[in-house]
C-alpha cells in the first residue's frame, strides 16, 4: 500500500519539531510521499488529486495539531482521484499530545498509528499495573462527594481531602438549582451527611494535598492536616466560642456579604459539623499566644486547643480523583461594571447568598444600606434584613466570559443561573422590574429551554445585548446597553445589578497539575485523556478528573462525570489492574503494537 | 420585499481595510460605548451587520460611517477583536469610492500602486508643463518675481482658478451623488424641503468647528484635526486670492503672518499625525491603510516645499526658489486634482453634509411613533 | 393497639415551607395530638443537625414513632428512616407528611395552608401509631449485566463492566455496532475522526471474552428484580432465523439512543420536494465520501445550514437538541475545506457553544467568513426555488434578527440540522424494563440532578441519548456513571429489597387468579398445587392493584393496611 503524509497546522505555534516528525514519517513502511504544508495552508483538492494520481497513492495521512480541519479537502481529493475516500487517516497531535519535552516523540507515535490505519488509543495502551484498593478524592464539592460515595458504597476505602472546613463546595452556597428549582441544600446535605457518616470514607477537611509520589496504582500522598484547633469529635457546635470571639471577618461561605468570627463553623449544616479556628484572623494565633484565647476558656467541652500544630499525614492510594472545582471570575477586572465601587453591583455568588434562606437576610432580596461602623469609625455598605428591596434589577450575562480580553470560553452555567435569579427576583418581589442582558441564551440541557420560556412568560425583560456599562448618574444607577433585537439603544435605571460572572479554575490548579504530572488545557482546566472517548481519565495512569475542574459544567453533568470517574476506579480495583501512564510507553512499543493490530484486522 | 444579501461584499471590503468585521458576534457592546450613537443612528454594530450581510444599497444609503470619528473605544472593548472602529473607517473609504462616479477613487483604494503611479505621472506632467510654460513665456529661471519671473504669479493664479473649477466640479458631483444615495433614492429616506432650510446652518457650523469630533471624549485629536483643517483653509484662501501679494518681493505682514501661521499648522499637525501612525498606540493608528499614508506624506510635502521655496526666495536664492517652486507644484497639483476629490480628502465635504442630512433625518424619525419600551427603560437621546 | 410515644418534626426547609406555613403554630397543634410526646421545628430537618435531633430525642425520650412534616417522601423518606435505624428504631415506625410539594409550594394563603398542613400532620400522626415493624430482606446479586444498545454509550458501559471482570450481554438490533456515531465522519469541536473512537471501542468489545455481543437481536422479555433479572433475547442468526436465548443478569443498562427528526414534517423547508435540501445526516454522508454536490452533480457555490430543525419549536419539540450547533459549525469548516470558493451561511436562533473548545470553534467559524444569520424562534426561514437564470438554485427568506431586515440568501445546497428525538419504539423498551418516559418520550432518571443514570426501577439504568440529547463526551460520561453504579452494587454481593410488598392470605385466597394478570410487574405467581396465588416479594412494588381487586380480600399490602389508610384518612378530615 502506497501512503503519503501531509503536515498541516491550525495553531500558530507548535511544541514539537515538525521537520523531525516529517523525516521520521518518510522512513515508515509504504510512505512514498511526505509534504509539510505549514500553518493553515489554502488547499486545492484538485491539485492534491493530481498528486495522488502521479504518486499513485492509496492512503493519505494528515498530521498536525488538529488535522481534521483539513480532512475534507483530502477526502474530496481522493474521490476526485477515484481512490477510496475512506483511506484518509488523521494524526491529531493536540488530541493525544504530550507536554513540550517529549511532544515530538509522541507525535511520531501518533503518525505511525495513523499510517497503519490504527487508532492511537488502541495501540497506545500502557501496561496495566496492580492497584492499591484505596482511593484519594481531592475536593469535597458535589463532584468529590458523588465520586467518594460511589466508591465507598462499593465497600472500598476513600480518603477525601477538602481544603476548607466543610464539605459542600459551591453547591452548598446555592439557593435553588435550575431548572427544577429544588433547593440545593435539600438535595446536597443528605449526601454530605452520608459522606460524614460513611464507614469507608476518611474525611480530611481543612487539609491540603502537599505532595504526591509513587507510580500509577501505588501513589504515596502527603496530606497537610492544617491545625483546626477544635476537636472535631468533641465539638457539638454549640457556638459559645463564636459568641465570645472578638474578631469579625467577612464570611467566605456568604461570599463576603456577611461576617463570621475567627472561630467559626462555615454554615449550620456543615460536615463535619464542628467549629474551626481561622489562623489568619485569630488574635491568639497572630499574637503567638499572647492575647485573647477567650474561646478556649469559654468552651464548655474544652475541645479548643489553640496551640494545636499542623501535621502531615501520609496515605497510600491506587487511584486519585481530581474534583477541585472552580472559582468565579474577579469582576473587579472589568471596571466599567463598577463592581467593588458601586455598593449594589453584586456577583452571582453574592446574590445566591443574599436570596438564600440561610443567608444574612434570611432570603430577603434587599439593597445594601449605609451603616456607621463604630470600630472602624467609617460608613460601610451592608445588607440588612430590613433594608429596602430593589424596585428594579439588572442581570448581566457573560461577565468575563466569551471575551478575548478575559476568558474566551463560555462558562456554560451562567445563562441558566441568571434565568433562575430572574425567577427568584420576580417571585420574591413581584413589583420589581427585572432585566436580563444576554448574547446567546444557552439553554441546552434537559428542561432548560422550557425553563427559559417560563422565565420570559413570568415577565422578565430579556434583552439581547451585552451591557456596556453600569454608572451612577446623579443618585441613580444606570445600565446602558443596546437592545439589538429591537434595534435601539436603551438606559435602564436600576437599584441592583447582578453580574453573571464566569468560572475559572480553582486557585492551586497549576501546582496540583505539576505535582500530579497532569496536563492542563489552554484555558487552564485539567486536560482529560481524550475529549470524546475518555473525558474522565488523564494521561497520568490512575488519575481521574471529575466535575468543574475539567471545564465548566452544570450539576447533572458534574454528577454524571464524577460517577464516571468512580467507574474507572472501581473497574481498576475490582479487576486488580489499573492503566499506567501514557508517558511510560516508548515510540517503538506503540509502533510494534500498531503493526500487529494492522495485521490482525 | 426581501433584500438579497451579497455574501461576497465582505471580501471586497477587505481591500478597503475591513479585515476583522466577520469576527463580530453582535453583542452590541460597541454601539453602547460609542459616545456618538443615539436612538436614530445606532452604530457601529448595525453598520458592521449590513457589511457582513453585504446589503450594499443599505450601506450606500447610510450616514452612520460619517458620524463616527474613530475614538476607538468600541475597538478597545470588543470581545472578539472585530475592530468596529476600523470597519467604520473602511466603510468611509468604500462610500467615498461609491460617491465618486469616475471610479478613480475605487481604483486608488483597491490598488495603492495605481494611486502612487497616477500621482507620479501627473506630477511629472506638471513639472514638464511648468518648465515649458516658464521658458515659453520668456521667463528667466533666475528671476522669481516681477518682470521676467520664471513663473509669473498671475499665470499661476489663473492656473489655480482653473484647477479649482475642476475640483469643485468633481467634488460637487460626488456630493450630489451622496445626497442622492442617502437622502433621495429610497422613499423612506426622503425629507420635506422645509427641513433643508431649517437645518442649513448645521453645514457651516460643523464644517468650521467640527464640534462633533470634540464629543469623542478626548479633545486633543479634535484640536489637532481642527488646526489642520483651518490651516489648510487659510492657505487655500491666501493662494486663491492673495497669491500675488504672497509672492511679491515686498513684505505684506498681514498676508504673510497668516501664511506662516497656516504653514506651522500644516507642518505641525501632519508631523504629529505621522508620528501617531508610526507609534500605533491608539486603535485609530493601529491600522493604517496605504491611502492614509499617501494623504499625510503628500500634505506634509506640499507644505514643506511651499514654505521652502518661499524661504529661498526671501533668502535671495531665486534660482533655488524657482526649482523648489516647480517641485512644490509637482506635489501640490496631483494632490489637489487626484486626492481631494477621490480620497480621504473628500471627507472634508462629506462629514458636514452627513451631519446636515442626519439632523433632518433625525427630526423625521423622531416624529414617528416608537415601539413601546420595557417598563422603566428609556431611550438614549442624541448627544 | 398498644400506646406509643410519637415525635413530630416540622421542617421549615429554609423558607420553602416557612414562608407559607406557620411552623410554630403547627408545632403547638402537633403537641395536642394523641400520643404525641414532643413536637419541634427546624430550618433543615434533612441536615446533619436535624437528623441528630431526631436520633437524640429517640434515645433520650424513648420515642417509638416519628413523624416528619417536610418535603415529598420521594426526596427524604430514606434519609429519615436511616436516622431511625441509627437510633435503634425500626425504620418503618416512621411517616412523612408532605407539607412542601402538597402544601407550601402550591398555596398562596398562609392561613389556609397552615390549616392544610395541620390536617396532613394529623393524618400522619394517626397513621404512624398503627405502623408495624417490618424487616427488609436481602437477595443475591447476579454479577452479569445486560446492555441494550450497541452505540457509543452501550459499548463504553459494556467495556467498563467487562474490564472490571464481569460478564456482559450486549444486545444490538442492527447488524453492526456503533449506533448513530457510526454515521458521523468527524466530531466537533476538535474535528477528530469518529472512526478512531469507534474502532477502538468495537475492537476491544469484540476482543473481550467477557462480552457476549448479540447482533440482529432484541430483548423480548425481562422479568425478575434487581440482582435477579431473567432476560429473553431473540437473536437472528446468519440466515435470519430467530431463536430465543435466556440468561440471568443482575442489572440492566438501557442505551438505546435516539432517532433524528423527520425533516419532511416541516413543509416550508421543502425537504423531499426540493432536490438540494438535505438533512445533516445525508450531508454527513456526502462529506465522508468527499462528494459535496448538488442533485445535478454540480459543485454548490452557496451552502446554507439551518439550525433547530424540529428543535426549540412549539409544534415539534420544545427542547434543544444540544449537538446541532456545533455540528453546523463543523459543516461550515468542512465545506470551506472541501470547496475553497464555496460560501457558507448559517441560519440559527442562539449559538449554543457551551462546552470545552466550543466558543473557540465558533470564533474560528466566523474567521473563515461563515455568514451567521439569526432568526426568531417560531419565525422559520422559507426556502423557494430561484428563478431560472438566477445565479443560485434556491433562495432562503429570513427575518434576520440582528439587522432587523427581511433578507433572502442565495443557496445551492441547504443542510437541515435535524434534531434528536426519542426513538419511536422507546415505549416498548420502557414497558419491557419498566421505566417511565417524559412527555417527549425520553426515559426519566430517578433524580434529574443527583441521580442522572438510575431509574425508578432498581437495577435498571439509562445512559446516553435515550435519556435526553447529549454530545459524545457527556454520553460517554453517563455510560461510565451507570457502569459505576452497577460495579458498586456487584462489589457488595447481596442487596437489600424493600420490606413494603403485598402478601396473600392463602387461607382466604380463592385462587380466582384475577390478581395474576392484573399485576403490572408480574410479581404474582400461581401455585397450581395449592390453587392459591403467591406474591414474589422482591418483584412486588406495592402498587396495591392486587389488593384493591381481590374479591375475597385475601391480599394485604404491608405498610398499607386498611387500618393504616383509614386512620390517615380520618386524620386529614379535621
Structure characterization notes:
The complex is a heterotrimer of chains A (601), B (383) and C (574). Chain A has 601 residues and is of the alpha/beta class. Chain A has 17 helices and 32 strands. Chain A has a 5-stranded parallel β-sheet, with helices on one face. In chain A, strands 20-29-23-24-25 form a 5-stranded parallel β-sheet. The longest helix of chain A has 21 residues, at 555-575. The mean pLDDT of chain A is 94. Chain B is mostly helical and 383 residues long. Chain B is 68% helix and 1% strand. Chain B contains 19 helices and 2 strands. In chain B, helix 7 runs antiparallel to helix 8 and helix 10 packs parallel to helix 19. The longest helix of chain B has 32 residues, at 153-184. The two termini of chain B are 34 Å apart. In chain B, 41% of the residues are buried. The mean pLDDT of chain B is 91. Chain C has 574 residues and is α/β, with parallel strands linked by helices. Helix content of chain C is 30%, strand content 25%. Chain C contains 15 helices and 30 strands. Chain C has a 5-stranded parallel β-sheet, with helices on one face. In chain C, strands 16-23-17-18-19 form a 5-stranded parallel β-sheet. A 4-stranded parallel β-sheet of chain C has the order 2-1-3-4, sandwiched between helices. The longest helix of chain C has 21 residues, at 472-492. The chains are: A alpha/beta (601), B mainly alpha (383), C alpha/beta (574). Chains A and C meet through helix 3, strand 4, helix 6, helix 7 and strand 9 of A and helix 2, helix 3, helix 6, strand 8 and strand 9 of C. Strand 28 of chain A pairs antiparallel with strand 2 of chain B.
Amino acid at each position: 500500500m502506497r501512503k503519503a503524509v501531509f503536515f498541516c497546522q491550525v495553531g500558530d505555534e507548535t511544541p514539537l519539531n515538525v521537520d523531525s516528525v516529517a523525516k521520521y514519517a518518510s522512513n515508515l513502511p509504504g510512505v512514498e510521499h511526505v509534504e509539510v504544508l505549514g500553518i493553515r495552508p489554502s488547499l486545492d483538492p484538485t491539485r492534491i488529486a493530481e498528486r495522488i494520481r502521479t504518486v499513485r497513492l492509496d492512503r493519505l495521512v494528515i498530521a498536525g495539531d488538529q488535522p481534521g480541519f483539513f480532512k475534507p479537502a483530502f477526502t474530496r481529493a481522493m474521490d476526485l482521484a477515484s481512490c477510496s475516500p475512506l483511506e484518509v487517516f488523521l494524526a491529531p497531535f493536540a488530541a493525544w499530545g504530550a507536554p513540550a519535552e517529549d511532544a515530538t516523540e509522541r507525535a511520531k507515535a501518533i503518525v505511525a498509528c495513523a499510517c497503519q490505519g490504527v487508532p492511537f488509543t488502541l495501540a497506545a495502551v500502557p501496561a496495566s499495573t496492580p492497584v492499591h484498593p484505596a482511593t484519594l478524592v481531592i475536593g469535597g464539592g458535589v463532584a468529590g462527594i458523588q465520586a467518594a460515595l460511589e466508591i465507598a458504597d462499593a465497600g472500598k476505602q476513600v480518603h477525601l481531602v477538602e481544603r476548607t472546613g466543610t464539605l459542600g463546595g459551591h453547591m452548598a452556597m446555592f439557593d435553588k438549582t435550575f431548572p427544577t428549582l429544588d433547593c440545593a441544600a435539600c438535595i446536597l446535605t443528605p449526601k454530605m451527611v452520608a459522606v460524614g457518616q460513611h464507614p469507608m470514607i476518611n474525611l480530611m477537611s481543612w487539609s491540603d494535598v502537599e505532595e504526591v509520589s509513587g507510580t500509577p496504582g501505588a501513589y504515596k500522598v502527603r496530606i497537610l492536616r492544617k491545625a483546626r484547633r477544635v476537636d472535631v469529635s468533641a465539638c457539638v457546635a454549640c457556638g459559645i466560642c463564636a459568641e465570645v470571639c472578638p474578631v469579625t471577618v467577612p464570611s467566605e461561605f456568604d461570599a463576603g456579604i456577611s461576617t463570621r468570627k475567627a472561630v467559626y463553623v462555615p454554615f449550620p449544616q456543615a460536615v463535619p459539623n464542628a467549629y474551626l479556628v481561622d489562623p489568619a484572623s485569630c488574635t491568639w494565633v497572630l499574637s503567638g499566644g499572647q492575647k485573647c484565647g477567650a474561646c478556649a476558656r469559654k468552651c464548655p467541652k474544652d475541645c479548643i486547643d489553640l496551640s494545636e500544630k499542623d501535621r502531615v499525614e501520609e496515605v497510600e492510594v491506587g487511584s486519585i480523583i481530581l474534583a477541585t472545582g472552580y472559582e468565579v471570575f474577579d469582576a473587579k477586572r472589568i471596571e466599567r461594571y463598577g463592581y467593588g465601587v458601586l455598593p449594589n453591583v453584586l456577583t452571582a455568588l453574592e446574590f445566591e447568598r443574599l436570596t438564600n434562606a440561610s443567608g444574612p437576610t434570611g432570603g430577603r432580596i434587599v439593597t445594601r444600606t449605609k451603616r456607621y461602623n463604630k470600630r472602624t469609625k467609617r460608613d460601610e455598605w451592608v445588607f440588612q434584613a430590613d433594608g429596602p428591596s430593589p424596585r428594579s434589577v439588572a442581570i448581566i450575562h457573560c461577565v468575563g466570559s466569551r471575551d478575548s480580553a478575559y476568558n474566551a470560553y463560555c462558562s456554560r452555567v451562567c445563562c441558566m443561573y441568571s434565568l433562575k435569579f430572574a425567577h427568584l427576583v420576580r417571585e420574591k418581589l413581584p413589583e420589581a422590574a427585572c432585566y436580563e442582558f444576554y448574547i446567546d441564551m444557552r439553554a441546552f440541557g434537559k428542561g432548560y429551554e422550557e425553563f427559559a420560556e417560563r422565565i420570559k412568560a413570568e415577565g422578565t425583560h430579556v434583552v439581547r445585548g451585552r451591557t456596556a456599562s453600569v454608572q451612577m448618574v446623579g443618585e441613580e444607577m444606570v445600565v446602558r446597553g443596546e437592545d439589538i433585537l429591537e434595534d435601539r439603544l436603551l438606559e435602564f435605571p436600576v437599584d441592583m445589578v447582578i453580574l453573571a460572572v464566569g468560572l475559572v479554575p480553582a486557585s492551586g490548579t497549576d501546582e496540583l497539575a505539576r505535582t500530579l504530572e497532569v496536563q492542563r488545557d489552554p484555558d487552564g482546566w485539567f486536560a482529560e485523556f481524550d475529549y470524546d472517548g475518555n473525558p474522565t481519565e488523564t494521561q497520568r495512569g490512575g488519575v481521574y478528573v471529575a466535575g468543574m475542574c475539567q471545564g465548566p459544567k452544570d450539576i447533572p453533568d458534574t454528577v454524571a462525570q464524577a460517577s464516571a470517574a468512580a467507574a474507572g476506579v472501581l473497574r481498576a480495583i475490582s479487576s486488580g489492574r489499573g492503566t499506567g501512564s501514557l508517558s511510560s510507553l516508548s515510540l517503538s512499543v506503540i509502533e510494534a503494537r500498531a503493526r500487529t493490530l494492522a495485521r490482525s484486522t | 420585499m426581501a433584500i438579497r444579501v451579497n455574501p461576497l461584499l465582505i471580501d471586497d471590503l477587505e481591500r478597503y481595510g475591513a479585515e476583522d468585521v466577520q469576527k463580530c458576534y453582535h453583542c452590541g457592546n460597541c454601539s453602547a460605548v460609542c459616545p456618538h450613537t443615539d436612538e436614530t443612528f445606532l452604530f457601529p454594530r448595525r453598520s458592521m451587520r449590513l457589511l457582513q450581510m453585504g446589503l450594499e444599497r443599505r450601506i450606500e444609503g447610510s450616514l452612520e460611517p460619517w458620524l463616527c470619528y474613530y475614538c476607538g473605544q468600541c475597538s478597545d472593548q470588543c470581545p472578539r477583536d472585530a475592530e468596529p472602529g476600523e470597519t467604520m473607517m473602511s466603510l468611509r473609504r468604500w462610500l467615498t469610492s461609491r460617491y465618486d462616479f469616475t471610479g478613480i477613487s475605487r481604483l486608488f483604494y483597491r490598488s495603492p500602486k495605481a494611486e502612487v503611479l497616477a500621482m507620479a505621472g501627473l506630477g511629472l506632467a506638471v513639472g514638464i508643463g511648468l518648465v515649458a510654460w516658464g521658458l515659453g513665456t520668456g521667463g528667466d529661471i533666475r528671476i522669481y518675481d516681477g518682470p521676467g519671473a520664471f513663473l509669473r504669479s498671475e499665470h499661476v493664479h489663473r492656473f489655480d482658478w482653473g484647477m479649482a473649477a475642476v475640483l469643485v466640479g468633481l467634488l460637487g458631483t460626488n456630493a450630489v451623488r451622496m445626497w442622492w444615495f442617502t437622502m433621495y433614492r429610497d422613499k423612506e429616506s426622503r425629507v420635506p424641503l422645509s427641513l433643508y432650510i431649517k437645518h442649513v446652518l448645521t453645514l457651516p457650523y460643523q464644517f468650521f468647528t467640527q464640534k462633533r469630533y470634540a464629543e469623542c471624549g478626548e479633545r486633543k485629536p479634535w484640536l489637532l484635526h481642527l488646526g489642520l483643517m483651518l490651516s489648510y483653509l487659510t492657505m487655500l484662501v491666501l493662494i486663491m486670492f492673495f497669491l500675488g501679494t504672497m509672492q511679491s518681493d515686498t513684505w505684506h505682514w498681514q498676508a504673510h503672518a497668516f501664511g506662516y501661521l497656516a504653514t506651522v499648522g500644516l507642518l505641525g499637525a501632519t508631523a504629529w499625525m505621522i508620528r501617531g501612525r508610526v507609534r500605533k498606540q491608539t486603535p485609530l493608528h493601529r491600522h493604517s491603510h496605504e491611502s492614509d499614508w499617501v494623504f499625510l506624506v503628500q500634505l506634509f510635502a506640499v507644505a514643506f516645499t511651499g514654505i521652502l521655496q518661499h524661504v529661498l526666495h526671501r533668502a535671495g536664492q531665486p534660482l533655488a526658489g524657482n526649482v523648489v517652486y516647480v517641485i512644490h507644484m509637482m506635489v501640490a497639483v496631483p494632490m489637489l486634482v487626484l486626492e481631494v476629490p477621490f480620497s480621504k480628502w473628500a471627507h472634508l465635504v462629506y462629514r458636514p453634509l452627513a451631519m446636515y442630512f442626519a439632523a433632518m433625518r433625525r427630526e423625521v424619525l423622531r416624529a414617528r411613533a416608537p415601539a413601546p419600551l420595557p417598563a422603566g427603560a428609556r431611550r438614549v437621546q442624541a448627544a | 393497639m398498644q400506646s406509643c410515644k410519637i415525635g413530630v418534626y416540622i421542617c421549615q426547609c429554609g423558607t420553602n415551607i416557612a414562608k407559607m406555613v406557620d411552623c410554630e403554630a403547627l408545632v403547638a397543634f402537633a403537641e395536642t395530638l394523641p400520643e404525641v410526646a414532643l413536637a419541634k421545628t427546624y430550618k433543615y430537618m434533612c441536615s446533619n443537625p436535624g437528623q441528630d435531633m431526631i436520633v437524640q430525642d429517640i434515645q433520650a425520650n424513648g420515642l417509638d414513632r416519628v413523624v416528619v412534616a417536610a418535603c415529598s417522601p420521594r426526596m427524604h423518606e430514606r434519609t429519615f428512616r436511616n436516622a431511625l435505624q441509627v437510633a435503634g428504631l425500626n425504620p418503618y415506625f416512621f411517616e412523612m407528611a408532605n407539607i412542601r410539594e402538597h402544601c407550601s409550594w402550591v398555596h398562596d394563603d398562609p392561613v389556609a395552608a397552615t390549616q392544610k398542613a395541620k390536617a396532613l400532620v394529623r393524618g400522619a400522626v394517626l397513621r404512624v401509631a398503627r405502623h408495624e415493624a417490618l424487616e427488609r430482606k436481602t437477595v443475591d446479586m447476579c454479577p452479569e449485566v445486560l446492555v441494550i444498545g450497541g452505540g457509543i454509550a452501550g459499548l463504553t458501559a459494556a467495556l467498563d463492566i467487562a474490564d472490571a471482570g464481569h460478564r456482559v450481554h450486549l444486545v444490538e438490533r442492527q447488524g453492526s455496532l456503533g449506533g448513530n456515531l457510526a454515521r458521523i465522519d468527524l466530531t466537533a469541536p476538535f474535528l477528530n475522526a469518529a472512526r478512531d473512537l469507534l474502532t477502538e471501542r468495537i475492537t476491544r468489545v469484540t476482543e473481550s471474552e467477557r462480552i457476549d455481543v448479540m447482533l440482529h437481536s432484541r430483548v423480548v422479555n425481562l422479568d425478575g428484580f434487581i440482582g435477579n433479572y431473567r432476560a429473553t433475547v431473540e437473536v437472528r442468526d446468519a440466515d435470519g432465523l430467530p431463536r430465543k436465548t435466556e440468561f440471568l443478569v443482575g442489572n440492566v443498562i438501557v442505551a438505546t439512543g435516539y432517532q433524528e427528526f423527520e425533516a419532511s414534517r416541516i413543509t416550508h423547508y421543502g425537504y423531499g420536494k426540493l432536490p438540494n435540501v438535505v438533512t445533516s445526516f445525508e450531508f454527513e454522508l456526502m462529506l465522508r465520501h468527499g462528494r459535496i454536490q448538488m442533485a445535478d452533480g454540480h459543485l454548490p457555490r452557496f451552502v446554507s445550514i439551518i439550525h433547530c430543525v424540529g428543535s426549540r419549536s412549539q409544534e415539534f419539540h420544545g427542547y434543544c437538541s444540544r449537538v446541532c450547533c456545533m455540528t453546523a459549525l463543523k459543516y461550515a469548516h468542512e465545506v470551506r475545506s472541501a470547496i475553497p470558493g464555496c460560501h457558507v451561511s448559517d441560519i440559527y436562533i442562539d449559538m449554543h457553544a457551551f462546552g470545552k473548545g466550543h466558543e473557540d470553534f465558533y470564533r474560528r467559524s466566523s474567521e473563515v467568513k461563515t455568514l451567521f444569520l439569526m432568526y426568531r424562534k417560531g419565525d422559520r426561514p422559507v426556502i423557494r426555488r430561484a428563478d431560472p437564470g438566477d445565479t443560485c438554485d434556491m433562495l432562503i427568506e429570513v427575518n434576520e434578527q440582528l439587522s432587523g431586515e427581511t433578507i433572502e440568501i442565495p443557496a445551492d445546497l441547504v443542510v437541515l440540522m435535524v434534531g434528536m428525538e426519542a426513538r419511536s419504539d422507546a415505549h416498548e423498551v420502557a414497558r419491557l424494563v419498566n421505566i417511565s418516559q417524559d412527555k417527549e418520550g425520553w426515559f426519566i432518571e430517578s433524580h434529574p440532578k443527583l441521580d442522572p443514570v438510575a431509574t425508578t426501577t432498581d437495577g435498571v439504568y439509562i445512559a446516553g441519548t435515550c435519556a435526553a440529547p447529549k454530545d459524545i463526551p457527556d454520553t460517554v460520561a453517563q455510560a461510565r456513571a451507570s457502569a459505576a453504579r452497577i460495579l458498586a452494587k456487584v462489589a457488595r454481593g447481596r442487596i437489600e429489597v424493600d420490606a413494603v410488598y403485598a402478601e396473600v392470605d392463602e387461607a382466604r385466597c380463592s385462587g380466582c387468579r384475577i390478581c395474576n394478570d392484573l399485576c403490572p410487574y408480574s410479581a404474582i405467581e400461581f401455585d397450581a398445587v395449592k390453587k392459591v396465588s403467591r406474591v414474589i416479594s422482591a418483584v412486588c412494588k406495592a402498587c396495591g392493584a392486587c389488593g384493591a381487586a381481590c374479591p375475597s380480600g385475601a391480599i394485604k399490602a404491608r405498610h398499607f393496611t386498611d387500618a393504616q389508610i383509614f386512620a390517615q384518612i380520618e386524620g386529614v378530615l379535621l
